Amino acid sequence: MDHSTEVSRRNFIKNTTGAAVALSIPSIIPASAFGANDRVRVAVLGVNGRGQSHISGFSALSNAEVATLCDPDNNILQKRAQEFEQKTGKKVKTENDLRKVFDDKTIDAVSIATPNHWHALAAIWACQAGKDVYVEKPGSHNLHEGRKLVEAANKYKRVVQHGVQLRSSEALKEAVKHLRDGLIGNVYMARGLVYKWRPDIGDKGTEPIPAGLNYDLWTGPAEMKPFSRNYVHYDWHWHWNYGNGDIGNQGIHETDMCMWGLGVDTFPDKITSSGGKFLWNDAKETPEVLSSSFVYTKEKKIIEFEVRPWMTNDEGGVGIGNIFYGSEGYMVVKGYDYYETFLGKEKKAGPSRKAGGDHYKNFIDAVIAKDPKLLNGPVETAHLSSGLAHLGNIAYRVGRALTFDNKTEKFVGDEEANKLLTRKYRSPYALPQVV
């Protein structure tokens, strides 16, 4: 695989840690970008769930304007448009087909909050249309898509922000600097924890497509299946055709934090996963419980990841977050904006901090400056953190330990596993050739 157009992963890690942790947006925006009175016109794609946060986040910025809402479910779309007008006093344009948004020359940027199976394709099409992109996590539905997204961002010179908002947390930037500076010694292991309440979704069977939903557009590049309430609108997360389970849902924040904190800039070479469905006899396909290990043999580092869906204890006070282990202590990261450290054998309390950030503002500032280097969550994180989840899921699905080659981005001697690195795309929603 030719990775010549890829921004160096080494440079990515270097530019997002250490001295760059304290990176701030310059006060002077280049005159060649946007005029002093201009605002970035944003279209939000997918407005049922996470898209509502995108609408609020961009609406709160003085240098951005939510200009269009897009969703294949017209019932939800019109409801959101009405809510927008009631809240802001302004009407917003609505579209059901995201391709019409890409054709709209008045749109500067798109914010993608669709189901996972649309993320990379929508982002690549947006880059080809000259739009900058904020794409929700995971940045890809499979590992191959992540590589293509990086290539597209570079080829079309677009600003692409991955929705891992913890990267904009001032507290977690400080935490990573502590890890780089040796506060807890040699940092050799990271744990990612996703302990979320995930109840029985039942099995709702199939039924006619409801009025107002363009199910062909909703399905997009995925295999067409008979309509079910088990897919639309939230529980698609638990079906391989559309989602990636909780390691590829909430877990992307934690896979990203693991890689960021450890300072690893490649995928692991040894992957094992085990788990399954132990609680509910429902329609979910993805595992309720998943334990994955990712070993970086050369770097002598390991990532351990745990997904639990129901009754469980916390670890170090963490239910959603991370724990980093070093030779001189350990660090606990809770959620998106808090860390604390414990030093020495006595676990003496060390530095801690709680402080957030504005990931939407960081994106808009980079768009105005036309400078991807200002991004806290650049496109490389979309490939790396999402890809880590994909590797863990593949090891679970084939049921054996896997060896991964970072140069080819393929598994060594395992064609069954390699087939799961990509998917068959349904016409006309094919992944385009980028390089």
From TrEMBL:
GO terms for molecular function: nucleotide binding. Pfam families: GFO_IDH_MocA, GFO_IDH_MocA_C2. Residues 40-163 form the Gfo/Idh/MocA-like oxidoreductase N-terminal domain. Residues 205-266, 360-430 form the Gfo/Idh/MocA-like oxidoreductase bacterial type C-terminal domain. InterPro entries: Gfo/Idh/MocA-like_OxRdtase_N (IPR000683), Gfo/Idh/MocA_oxidrdct_glycsds (IPR050463), Gfo/Idh/MocA_OxRdtase_bact_C (IPR043906), NAD(P)-bd_dom_sf (IPR036291), TAT_signal (IPR006311). This is Oxidoreductase domain protein.
